[in-house]
Description:
The chain is of the alpha+beta class. The chain has 10 helices and 13 strands. The strands form 3 sheets. It has a 6-stranded mixed sheet with strand order 7-6-3-4-5-11, with helices on one face. A 5-stranded antiparallel sheet has the order 8-9-2-1-10. Strand 4 (74-82) and strand 5 form a beta hairpin. The longest helix is centred in the N-terminal third of the chain and has 18 residues, at 38-55. The chain is elongated. The two termini are 28 Å apart. Mean pLDDT is 88; it is low at 182-188 and 299-312.
Amino acid sequence: xxxxxxxxxxxxxxxxxxxxxxxxxxxxxxxxxxxxxxxxxxxxxxxxxxxxxxxxxxxxxxxxxxxxxxxxxxxxxxxxxxxxxxxxxxxxxxxxxxxxxxxxxxxxxxxxxxxxxxxxxxxxxxxxxxxxxxxxxxxxxxxxxxxxxxxxxxxxxxxxxxxxxxxxxxxxxxxxxxxxxxxxxxxxxxxxxxxxxxxxxxxxxxxxxxxxxxxxxxxxxxxxxxxxxxxxxxxxxxxxxxxxxxxxxxxxxxxxxxxxxxxxxxxxxxxxxxxxxxxxxxxxxxxxxxxxxxxxxxxxxxxxxxxxxxxx
Length: 312
């Protein structure tokens, strides 16, 4: 399988950074576990590329969880990517027909109640620390515009994104204007006007990139094609990959959060509980004994393995 690649670069002597990502192999791994209509594939595939681009700049060990909550045929699109660029994604649909030409607005924001949410979740929290969560309305006609507006509103960062996805390919380009004060850009011998000129020029170059070109062209060729006249510094590439973090312990904790009364009612109706991970499809099975152990013991749920789940 072809290895996914994320390539970081900066414009020399300018407060502009960029990233190109080809995350097609991971995207095909996501699709292998689900069957989505074409418009949903396009939106979720674009979110996969965007999550990798944003996660590459995480300054902590943890994850970005990117969600779009909808009020139309699509209830939820969610992508989770950690600081090692391990990624998973899924969508939840309502029982409504989806037209081939459906847009983000018709799928997720029919009544103007759609919301875009980014959660920053550190892996090692200090006592009392909660994940940071930013919530904004769905302001834009496509995934890239929604994220650009979020970054400007919530992070005060000028960010431009170009995203494209189909059944086989997911790619993206990010450009971001860095502040002249603070960080490495502080030492850059440039004026505000020079920095703004470089930023505007980079955005104009990015704007020449069309969806079909992004889908059909490798990122190394795109780098040369777009920025061949610019002086840029290219960093060592990193490699995103599909990875699901579901465990029996997490499923057990989810059942405990539902409460003993609700779990026992479900057991009485169904005899046993079969739960599939929304992201990877892995099946977890709980019978009455398993569930009784969950509520009778303070031990981690992972330790309460059903006989059929015993580790080899």
